[in-house]
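Students often ask why inverse folding is considered easier than folding. One informal answer: many sequences map to the same fold, so there is more than one right answer. In these notes we will look at a single instance of the problem. The structure comes first.
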């Protein structure tokens, strides 16, 4: 907790789990954080060895923040906390979340046993941001990349896509309601959506 217990620290790490981000991109993914607080948290995480700054080569010449190899090992603790929090009776899949948070949610909550052998190349445009994914040994591997050519393509805002994957309505109904734009084999798309379930609340 000395290293990552400050408010916003783990959320910053979450935003970096799929690759480096510019300062402006981090702010966009974390509504409510001020520029000063974000600067302080980045400096603290850098001083702790959890992330580093890097300047992109020309012509971009932009500074990005990325996790160190040690920082990337926070993935499993974050995923464990996410699975735990998803079982809360107050959990609401319609609340706002970032594009990265939605994609990491899918990576966290996929039924790995049922997903083994899922055959399709997957594409997403979440809030306009492109992602590409595939299932490898039951694990959803995701990268920020152009989804062009993917066999299944899901497009929409994160607040609309989350209920599509975690709600009760079939994919076809989500399309009809305008929550998601889907391209590909409908049966295979529904099979993919069915791989995601929220844990039941337990209060023994």
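Output (designed amino acids):
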């Amino acid at each position: 907790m000395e290293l990552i217990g400050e408010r916003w620290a783990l959320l910053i790490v979450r935003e970096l789990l799929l690759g480096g981000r510019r300062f402006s991109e981090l702010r966009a993914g974390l509504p409510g954080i001020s520029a000063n607080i974000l600067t302080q948290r980045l400096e603290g995480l850098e001083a702790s060895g959890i992330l580093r700054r890097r300047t992109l080569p020309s012509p971009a010449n932009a500074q990005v923040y990325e996790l160190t190899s040690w920082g990337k090992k926070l993935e499993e603790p974050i995923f464990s906390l996410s699975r735990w929090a998803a079982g809360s009776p107050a959990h609401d899949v319609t609340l706002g979340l970032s594009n990265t948070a939605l994609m990491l949610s899918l990576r966290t909550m996929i039924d790995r046993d049922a997903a083994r052998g899922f055959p399709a190349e997957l594409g997403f445009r979440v809030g306009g941001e492109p992602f590409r994914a595939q299932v490898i040994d039951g694990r959803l591997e995701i990268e920020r990349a152009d989804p062009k050519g993917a066999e299944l393509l899901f497009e929409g805002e994160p607040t609309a896509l989350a209920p599509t994957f975690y709600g009760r309505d079939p994919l076809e109904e989500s399309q009809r309601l305008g929550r998601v734009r889907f391209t590909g084999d409908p049966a295979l798309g529904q099979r993919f959506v069915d791989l995601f379930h929220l844990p039941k609340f337990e209060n023994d």
